[in-house]
Specification:
The chain is α/β, with parallel strands linked by helices and 505 residues long. Among the domains are: 170 residues, Rossmann fold (3-Layer(aba) Sandwich), CATH 3.40.50.980; 97 residues, GMP Synthetase, Chain A, domain 3 (2-Layer Sandwich). Helix content is 31%, strand content 25%. It is built from 15 helices and 26 strands. It has a 4-stranded mixed β-sheet, sandwiched between helices. It has a 4-stranded parallel β-sheet with strand order 4-3-5-8, with helices on both faces. It has a 4-stranded mixed β-sheet with strand order 13-14-15-16. Helix 2 packs across helix 3 and helix 9 packs across helix 10.
């Protein structure tokens, strides 16, 4: 076993083995039931499971779809598959027949790993309904074997082979299968680890689905810096707070919705009482953060906040650091690592670097996604500042074109977020025969707040200096904005579907 530093590892398994040699007795994974697995124990458990899977026919290149929640066993299974050099297709547990069936067919999966009956849904029955290949229930029948029977681990050169397929959620068409290698996932995790500067004294947390692209991103961070992480199977507050406190979590997060959830709980406590006394850093990505949210987190939760920018196709593009200035942390998404090239073309952010995916399972989509110089087209709009930090200004498809004028939804959302009677907001464009599109604000209000009127919104935005052409012409108040089940991004296509056909003067 290589006892060198984890830095520079070419495959995920090499990273696991190096950390196990350096810190065999240090804790790695903790859970809500107070189970604990060390780095050495993790590597040993993964090899036993790898041997058991190998005995069933799983080997290098075997295609395995797994749909498992955030548990210790899930991380072990994924590492076991990495040890064998299998091609993994992690699927978030919230997906059902349509999405899972599509992934099984397109990846030509040979195995499907099921959680069995989880949260009232029978995943094994679904797999059989979809005529999935060999089905294994990961938490009741996962095989183990003698590690001495295993073939050699993947060689360094294999780190550049496609070993991971992640599906992005489709809105009006089929999901897109994103192709990653061990090296691209290690590059993303290295960026996160470098920016946050966490150490062996920290205790992290994974409260989002481990099947999300952020799963290996965070795993790489643990392996590089040798600190443990608490696994939260389902992020729901206040229920999860006891585990955070009991384990003394020092860094938490996931996305802007996670920050807001912690803030909401903090505001229930008496002034001067900290929600999580051990917490020193919130970090995440997945969706832009309003600058005001940054200041609220720092002031009310009493911790730092470092936000980043990533996507399934490039898990870590930029990342804020606790060492950045307050202005940088509040108003940007951080800076890219040295190996990530960012180019702005007609306002669109384009990427080239080791953390960028190899393309999609559909070659036609791959051809569309990369320009002639090999830069990936993100579909996001933004600009690079002279200090190297990136500012997101919206998405190409999130630009509202009203009477020929381009309007940034994000600009309006950030202003609305500051309103005392708005908990969260999404701004969308709706079809309009006279304007092309009209601006519609969809807002959540805090519990007990008096209902807002459009006139109040117009007056507020005018007072904030927003030009008249950008002010919403329609206001919709909802109990909760629709969000996905991973990093809780707002699903604007759902809002467009809901309100596009509503009669409007």
């Amino acid at each position: 076993m290589d006892t060198g530093s984890p830095a520079g590892a070419r495959t995920l398994w090499e990273l696991v083995a190096r950390r196990a040699a350096l810190s065999p007795d240090a804790p790695m994974l903790l859970d809500e039931r107070d189970r604990r697995l060390t780095f050495g124990g993790f590597a040993a458990a993964a090899e036993r499971v790898a041997a058991g899977l190998h005995g069933l026919g799983v080997g290098a290149g075997s295609r395995v779809t797994w749909q498992l929640p955030t548990r210790v066993e899930t991380v072990v299974v994924s590492a076991a598959l990495a040890r064998l050099g299998a091609v993994q297709n992690p699927v978030i547990p919230v997906h059902r027949d349509r999405e899972v069936g599509f992934a099984l067919r397109q990846t030509d999966a040979e195995f499907y790993l099921s959680p069995g009956d989880w949260r009232g849904f029978d995943f094994t029955a679904m797999a059989r309904r979809l005529e999935a290949p060999r089905v294994l229930e990961a938490y009741t029948a996962l095989p183990e074997g003698d590690p001495s029977s295993l073939p050699p681990p993947p060689e360094a050169a294999e780190g550049g082979q496609v070993r991971w397929i992640y599906y992005t959620s489709g809105t009006t068409s089929d999901p897109k299968g994103v192709l990653h290698t061990d090296r691209s996932l290690i590059a993303g995790g290295t960026c996160l680890a470098s920016a946050l500067g966490l150490g062996a004294d920290d205790i992290g947390s994974i409260a989002f689905p481990y099947a999300h692209i952020g799963g290996p991103d965070y795993l790489v961070t643990l392996l590089l810096h040798g600190f443990p992480s608490l696994l939260i199977e389902r992020f729901a507050l206040p229920d999860a707070l006891d585990a955070y406190r009991r384990h003394g979590v020092t860094t938490a997060g996931g996305s802007t919705a996670f920050y807001s959830a912690f803030l909401a709980e903090q505001r229930k406590l008496p002034e001067g009482t900290r929600l999580l006394p051990s917490l020193r850093l919130l970090a995440g990505g997945g969706a832009p953060k309003p600058p005001e949210l940054y200041h609220e987190v720092v002031h009310e939760l009493g911790c730092a906040l470092a936000h980043g920018y990533g996507m399934t196709e490039a898990p870590m593009i930029t990342m804020g650091s606790p060492h950045d200035t307050v202005e940088q942390l509040a108003h940007t998404e951080g800076r890219p690592p040295a190996a990530m090239e960012i180019r702005i073309v007609d306002g669109e952010i384009r990427l080239r670097g080791p953390a960028v995916c190899q393309g999609y399972t559909d070659p036609a989509l791959t051809a569309e996604a990369f320009d002639d110089e090999g830069f990936f087209r993100t579909g996001d709009l933004g600009h690079l500042r002279p200090d190297g930090h990136l500012v997101l200004t919206g998405r190409l498809k999130d630009v509202i074109i009203r009477k020929g004028e381009n309007i940034s939804a994000k600009e309006i959302e950030e202003l609305l977020y500051r309103h005392a009677r708005i908990g969260d907001a999404a701004v969308i464009g709706l079809p309009d025969p006279a304007r092309g599109e009209r601006v519609c604000a969809v807002v959540e209000q805090p519990e007990g707040a008096p209902a807002l009127t459009l006139a109040e919104i117009v007056e507020y935005l005018e007072g904030a200096g927003l030009m008249r052409q950008k002010i919403p012409e329609q206001l919709e108040i909802v109990e909760a904005l629709p969000r996905n089940e991973t990093l809780r991004k707002v699903l604007k296509h759902k809002l467009r579907e809901r309100f596009a056909g509503r009669p409007w003067p």
